[in-house]
Amino acid sequence: MIKESGEQIRAALVASGIGLPPRRITVNLAPADLSKEGSHYDLPIALSIMAAIGALPQDALDGYLALGELGLDGRLAHIGGVRPAAIAARARERGLICAAASGAEAAWVANKLDVAADSLLALLNHLTGYQLAVRPLPAKYLPMASLLDLDEVRGQQVTRRALEVAAAGATICSWSARPGRANPCWRLGCFPFCRFSNPRELLDVSMIQSIAGELVGGAISDRRPFRAPHHSVSMAALVNSGLKVRSGEVSLAHNGVLFLDELPEFAPGVLDSLRQPLETCVSHSRAAQS
Length: 290
Description:
Layout: H1 5-15, H2 42-53, E1 64-66, E2 69-70, E3 76-77, H3 82-91, E4 95-99, H4 100-107, E5 115-117, H5 120-128, H6 157-169, H7 183-186, H8 199-211, E6 226-227, H9 235-239, H10 249-252, E7 257-258, H11 268-272, H12 275-279
Parallel strand pairs: 1-4, 4-5, 6-7
Antiparallel strand pairs: 2-3
């Protein structure tokens, strides 16, 4: 994907009114032994070229980290993983340059040097001082009024008590009954009423959701995640045993609830894959990354 971005970056620079010299441009992505993929390299490569050809002052990018996807017209698109990148930038006392659509996600880290622009031209105007971009603001919590609550269940006091104890203790709960008996209570969602009381847990969950691209508009919620995959889910989708390291349903349910309805209908291999997560954590290693 990095190789194909060359023409895309060139088109974005030309669309932004930046003339390129009529010669070959070589970009060195170091270190070479680190596997690189994704479109988030588009923006830093474009900014480096702009600084190299004199479109930007050499010191304009000092103190910044940048990531973002470029369109053919020079617009910046939202990508996943902005929250962890913003945290890494703050740890290094640097500002973060990203797309305007990712600004709300990065603003939760409260870095004074963050820059969020909707296009490469707007970013160029900001870095050269012609027209400063508006500082991004953190998005508010997503409205959760549509979530149901155990208070809406009438009867089944023993079941409700067991579910509340399991939720409070962050433990495993298995419920079985004759067909049609347990489903009304289960399908109400059971645990989404639980809120985060530990900011560290909320931060961990938001970083996982950011990498998976599940933060809508950069807004985070104080509700614990609730994942309910269908019983036909594959092992790769549940715990991520595919070729690439991605967040599966188990990871997306971190610090929340993984709800497996119709448990006997799940494939035996899928259920066996849950043994390690129940004991420790999910860890995947591939030839290029882990």
